[in-house]
Every structure is written in structure tokens, then in C-alpha cells.
Amino acid sequence: MNILQMLTQQELAPITLVAGEASKYRQITSITMMDAPDIIPYLRPNMLIITTAYHLKNNHDYFQELIREMAANGCAGIGIKKNRYLHEIPQDILLLAEQLNLPFMELPEHLSLGQINFLMTEKILQSEASLLTHAMDIHRQFTLLILNGHGVPKLIRQLSSLIGREVLLISPYLRPMYSTQQYVPVLATIQNMMNEGFQNPLNCEQTFTFSLIEGKETFAFFPINTHAEKNCFLMVKGNIDQQDITVRLTIEQAINVLSFALMQEQALQQQKRNIRNQHLKDFLENDSGSTVVTKAMSQELSLPYQQAYVCIIGHVITKTPSYSFQPTFTIEQIHKFCEETLQSTRIPIHVFSLNNELIFLYELQDPNSDYILFLRELFSELEGSIYQYFDLHMVFGVSNQTQSFSDIQRAFKEAQSTIVTLRNKQRVVSFYKKKEINELLQMIPQTDLLNYQRMVFKAFASLPDDEQTILFETLNEYLECHCQISETAKRLFVHRNTVIYRIEKCSSLLNKDLKDPEVTLQLRLALRIRNHLIIEQHA
């Protein structure tokens, strides 16, 4: 019950508000009779003090202190019975109460303080009982909507009708849920602020308001806890006064029901994702190559069989240079975020998660189109959003296009190999290309490369360093010139007899025929490894 409602009670008439008109909607939760002058330490928010002013009549300084302390503690107000001990309320006291917006009332003379306390307490209890009944009715009404299968959208419309305000359900990522309205100015404004470095207000756990300068509109955001890492929010247009208990109570009951409904719905959606993820995993690990199995899997995943695809793998990395897997829960949240983001753009991309990585299958509508620039811009923007909401970076490896769904396994391996070689964190999106020898060597541990190179050229180890360098240089040019003595001599600027002498010495040390194709292949690979290790060492 608030001050204004108390003033309208016939049983308490005449009761008059003589100061603090601006705070007449302040709530009263308790009544206290002032029968001693030491009440200040016991002041509480929304407490209404009633008194005969016996302890105030000759204590003006204490009277002023009491008014100030009551205002500071958020008390509901003070009521005084005139003509008992205080025949006239000092004007400076009334002026102080007015300045501090503290309701000041004159109580009826024909009722004792005990009777007034009883009547006020009774009215407060009746008001609380009425609010409780209202809350239970609203909760039952919202619960029945969900149980009868009308769903969350119907509940939102019903809430909007009950409180007479526009209501939207907002995802943790600033997007309307269960709404055809894709562009909401206030959400776009918050997003622009975040792009400029402001903290996301939806990360908070409490209700907050947000106002637009343009249009002078105010919106209240109420968090809905679903036990997920991030809350959904109920966005209500217009400022909601703290004293508007009925509206707040209605919203509170809607939030309670929505919390359970959303948890149930999110659990079902996650179960569907898990099933789809498992189906894709089984398909990628199945090497049977059966057309029947492949077509059955495309139907199971609701993906067209005769459709060109591009496979993209997204790998989450920490803020440190080292690549490390994130907890499954985080991957699920990012999976959900990417799914929501791409659905809002209506781009035909299907999202899966597998082994702590995200897999995107992009339906290529025109196989002859240049999709590289489009995918680079799309996934660069997606990576920026992931960093904004999850404080994590992500890199993407893109395969070549497939002819149909049957080539998805090959595309997946291409995207995987692209991720493995994508070591530069600044390069968000990388496209698959056939590996050069140096790129293949980068995929092999340096210890293995060094051991192989030492094994092949073990016989050279006993020679002085200068002689080793000469023989390696000659052997390298000889093999690059396809074993042509004259061409090798030209490149090294030496006599052809010198080349013959050096090659024969290499053949003798290695105990191999340097014209044997298998031998030349082994030596060329070992020389490539040696050059690669030298470059890596200098780098």
C-alpha cells in the first residue's frame, strides 16, 4: 500500500497530507509508533512513523534531524496527531519535509494512536494479500498458456496486453526472439555503442533502463535467468516507476514462467543440436563410400543431396598465442550464437559442432560464383562478434567447393588441413589450396625432419664444415639440373671436371648410384628438408 491509498481509506478520515506531495506513491511496508526519542537508529526503508509528537514538542533540533534521517533512510513518511501535544506544526519543518520529498501527514484526532496503528496495519495486510492473490492469478494464467502449448510468443503478447506496454523478448546477443521485428532502434544503438568500446549492458544481472535521445523513448530491461552463461532479457517500452507495484508484479510473474519455459526450450534445442552433431560425426568417420548411406545421411540432416557445398571449420583460440581447446560449454554457446546470427541473415549456412570445433556447411546456390570475398567478409565479421560477446578469438579454414553432399568428407579434410597450417592469428579466414613441399614440411615436427636429414647425409658428418658446404651445394645444383654435368658447372661457375669429381665423391660417401630415380628422389627431399631447417633457424 502507498501513501495515496492510505489517504483514501474512509476508516482513517480525515487524514491530510500537508507536505511531500511529490512522494505520495511511496510504498508503506510497516507502521511504527514513536513512543521514545531514540527512534533514529531503528529507521528502515518504507517505514511509516505515527506519533503524538510528545517527544518533539520542545525539541526542535531533534525534530529537524529526524526528518533528515527519515528521508535519508527512505522512510515512507511521518504522521502526527495535532492538538494533543503539538498544536501547530512548525513551518520550517513542513518546508524541510517538502524539500526532502518526505510525506508529512496530519492524523485524525478522534482515533487513538493504537486504533490508527491497527487500522493502517490491517489495510497494509489486506493490500499485501490482494497483491499476493493477483500474483498467483497472473502466474497461473501465464503457466496455463505454456502448459496448453500456446508457447512463449502468446505469453509475451498477453503480458503486453496486461500492462499496456510494448514488450519484446531479447536474446543475450541483442536480437529479438519470437518476433518478426528484426530491427529495433534501441538494440541497434546499444550495438553501435559496443562497437565503439562500451561494455555490453546485457552482461549485468539486474534490471536497468536505457533511453534514446532521439525520440526520447525509455526502455526497461529485466533479466531472465535460464542457468545459461548469459541471460535473456524482457524489454518493456517506457519507464516503470518503482512504486508501480502491480505492473512490476505482473512482469515478475511473467519472468518466473518464462525462465522455466526457456530452459525447457533451450534444453530441447540443445538435444537436437547434439543429435545432428552426432549424425554428422558418424558420417564423416564412415569411409564406406556407399551412395545409399550418403543419401540417407543427407536426408537425416535435412541437407539437399544434389547441392554444391563449401565446408568451413571454425577453431576457437585463447587470447594467448598458443592454440588450446575451450570447454564444451563455451563451444555450445558459440554454436548457438552463430546459429542465431546466421539465421537472422537468412544465409543458407548450417552450423554443427564437433570435437570442440564449429563446422559450417554453406549451400552454394551458384557454383560458378566467386564466393571467396563473400565468405571472407562474412566470417571476419562473425569473428568480431564472437570476440565482442565471448572475449575469444576464432580462425576459419575454408575448403574448395563440392559437387554434391557426397563430397562433404573430402571438403571436411581440406578445411581441417587449412586450420592446421593457419598459424597467423591475424589471418582470420584461410582458403584451402594444394600444399607445396615447404608447406608440407611445416606440418612435420622439426625433430623428425632433422633426424631424417642426418640419416641420409650421415656420411658427410665426418668431413670439415667447408667441404660439407661445397658438396651440399654441388649435389643440390646437380639434382636441380636433372643430373646434367655441363649445366651444373655453368651454375656453379666451375669446370665440368670439378663437378664430376665432387659428384663421384658424393656417390662414394653415400654409397649410392646418383642416377637411380629412387636415390635422387630421396636426396632431393633430404636437401629440401636441410634448406627448410636452415631457413627456419634464421627466422
Automatic annotation (TrEMBL):
Residue intervals of the PucR C-terminal helix-turn-helix domain: 471-529
InterPro entries per record: CdaR-like_regulators (IPR051448), CdaR_GGDEF (IPR041522), PucR_C-HTH_dom (IPR025736), PucR_C-HTH_sf (IPR042070), PucR_dom (IPR012914)
Purine catabolism PurC-like domain boundaries: 6-116
Gene3D superfamilies linked: PucR C-terminal helix-turn-helix domain (1.10.10.2840)
Location of the CdaR GGDEF-like domain: 298-419
Family: Belongs to the CdaR family.
Protein name per Swiss-Prot or TrEMBL: PucR family transcriptional regulator
